[in-house]
């Protein structure tokens, strides 16, 4: 692990894993402070997981979560108190170490000269010049002038962000564009189902962010703290300000593991897993391989979630593996769904039901996971059937695959861009913000009533790019998004039900029915998922090559 000593009081590091705790103990640290909120990243262990291992090692651990770029005076005071109260030597960590270094810098501002603070952090590898104004001016951040300005600023470098940057560059190469994202790694998240099914390796789904940002696009490796749309400004981690002519907001959503009591401390052990996290998908396949009898429980939370079919994909691929090994008859498969239907588009349900029957799976609707006791291998569900009083039931398990509740990121929910539910408020056709004319949004974070899938972002990116270019030229919106989403339902190894639909659940197939009938399980759809979609994602979608994703003309504009 990477340890950076700032002073005799504190050493900071990037994200700590459970395996790192032994090294931390060996190096003599007596306390750990976690400054990273749970659920920030798909590959991030929770504080409860770290705390449990630290306690076994005799290390004191404290949880002082700080939203990236939103270090408050209260955060600084709490950090200062923790430094004084904790045994030393002490290690503080966050995603990269920057938040912890920032907390130290601000907590020392009253007792050390600024030059001394900047020198100490620079020697440790952290550039605190971005918070120098706050050290000197009590945290005040001017927005009348920016540290940088671009024609287009894109928040988020996931599937949506990189795609829209590439599509914009393909249309208007002279645009100055910045993409803001603190992550070092970009994940092909649709591949995690295949990792959990033993088809892909985890490494096949990850590439360095720097290798994917389009040429001539500025990558600002920082987190967004806040938006000031009235000033055309984005406030970054470290109180830096970026100004924009147009803004695109697409940071994805937050996996809210903490909504389920006891879940975080048992993830990755006690038979509890999830294909929704990069580091846990291999554990899913490990559990499937090891299981020969018992009960396997698969959960699905209330909508909205990314890839609504993913919870049952895990069930099907697991069931298929057990079926092929001849142990399926000894495994009780339970699918616990907070909703009232197996799949939201009824045309695909008959094919799916045949596999539910094949694997002898039991469907339990209106069941919402609320608690997990890992050591006792018991999951608690809230049963809320229409017309009946809610009640809690306990279900024992040998394997538990969890799809976590999902919400908009914290910095989105509290921003002026959000609707009442916390999602970015857009026109569902043009994807332009409902209130701010120079802001657009796409991907999982916006509130259009479409499925939250990478395939949706593939269609949304050209629409947004086309409309931004039209806006720059002084025109009105020219392109519309029809709600397209795709969910390749992996019903068995080698066959997929390819669900493709638009707004309102209207079927929206990409291929003629004689070539590929998406309502039936086909090998052609599996070939598409396994062999074609990954290279299409990496080599076409993220590079602005809009294969089968050309924007649709806005009906009002066409008329």
Can you give me a brief rundown of this structure?
With about 550 residues, the protein is an alpha/beta fold.
Task: Describe the overall structure.
- There is one protein chain.
- The protein has 559 residues and is of the alpha/beta class.
- It folds into three domains: 4-137, Protein-Tyrosine Phosphatase, Chain A, CATH 3.90.190.10; 148-253 and 408-558, FAD/NAD(P)-binding domain; 257-407, FAD/NAD(P)-binding domain, CATH 3.50.50.60.
- It is built from 15 helices and 28 strands.
- Strands 6, 7, 10, 11, 12, 13 and 24 form a seven-stranded mixed β-sheet that branches.
- α10 links the parallel β16 and β17.
- α7 (159-171) runs parallel beside α13 (454-472).
- The longest helix is centred in the C-terminal third of the chain and has 19 residues, at 454-472.
- The model is unreliable at 138-142 (pLDDT under 50).
Please specify the SSE layout and strand pairing.
Layout: E1 4-5, E2 11-13, H1 20-26, E3 31-34, H2 47-56, E4 60-63, H3 73-85, E5 90-93, H4 98-107, H5 114-123, H6 132-137, E6 148-155, H7 159-171, E7 177-180, E8 185-187, H8 192-196, E9 206-208, E10 217-220, E11 224-228, E12 233-236, E13 241-249, E14 254-255, E15 272-273, H9 281-290, E16 294-300, H10 310-325, E17 331-337, H11 349-358, E18 362-365, E19 367-373, E20 378-383, E21 391-396, E22 399-401, E23 406-407, H12 410-413, E24 439-441, H13 454-472, E25 479-480, E26 485-492, E27 495-501, H14 523-540, E28 552-553, H15 555-558
Parallel strand pairs: 2-5, 3-4, 3-5, 6-7, 6-13, 7-10, 13-24, 15-22, 16-17, 16-22, 17-18
Antiparallel strand pairs: 1-2, 8-9, 11-12, 12-13, 14-23, 19-20, 20-21, 25-28, 26-27
